[in-house]
Amino acid sequence: MLIFDGASTPGTPQYIGGVNTRYSHDNFSRNDTLWSADVYLGEFSVADVSNPRAPRLLATQPTSSRFTHNCWLSDDGKYLFTTDEKTFGTVDAFDVSNIDDIEFLDRFSPKGAKENRAIPHNTHYYKGFLATSWYTEGVVITDAHRPQNLIETGRYDTYPQSKQGFEGCWGAYPYLPSGLLLASDISTGLYVLQPQYRRACYLEGVVRDKTTNLPVAGAQVRTLSEDIAESTDLEGVFRGGRVQPGIVTVVIAAGGYLSDTLEVELQPGVVKELNILLEKEGTTPTSTREMARHLKYELLVSPNPCSENCQATLSQPLTEDRAQLEIWNRLGQRVASIPAAKGNSQFLLTFPGPPGMYWVRLHRNGQTLGVETLVRNGNVAR
Prior knowledge:
The chain is an all-beta fold and 382 residues long.
């Protein structure tokens, strides 16, 4: 990190100081503090440059993939965001409000990044959002209002030809007075974009054992549309979200536990918090039964357990058209969908899934009208 005086001798800036004990790939200063991405050390560093002739190193912090390419501060200076220019690299978020106790908050990669071996390049903070260049993925906008839960809310692919390597988007600059965003692509040139900075809809919470109240680590929390798919950490905490508001069906599943299914409404900029209590397998899934009591139709599946075929019976003839009877497994995957005709109350169900526990759901236009637990080749549990 080298500091030059560009004012005293215009045209021939004079070197006056620096921190020359480490290679700095990219850095910037704000007020009397300089932030540096030290790529080969795999960390960012912080230096006091109040005396530019004698900078003083204050702190260092490793990033997720240990190849720290760039870093940028939030407007209030409380949070720092970094990129690791590496296959499977991420955008990391840190709480730097206390330099003596820097805290890692979250890591982000766009949807499809793992399959495409995506590589981030540079990120910049703009009014609560991150504009990041992701080589073959293009420009990705991330809602960073909650740095502990980074959510993608927009994208423009400048290089759709390839999905791997160091081709494509090289930079994303969001600071024009017009609000336009400049994207530079190594392979195809300059793009002038009109970004839409949309707030994320947050889904967060904790999953615990209903009997012991201990956290359940590794539980899968997914929407049926699979645009939210998160796992709980060692404290049972999960965080996720999406850009599209509306009512979603959430399935919570964990090994050795009965799955739970909930419907929640997501709103832009709002955190929907869930406190999930899962029951051990072999106990009564009261949460599903309690949910069924509030739905329009009672749904009975027989025989239960069943083999390949069973019958779903509604408490009254169906009054809605374009409804579906859907069978979902404990991983939140739909394994069968059967049209349910208006006026009928009995329906034949056939599904190919292996033995285990399933849910039969009467569904129409995003709304659950009835739900029942189905066991295939196992013990009855409702």
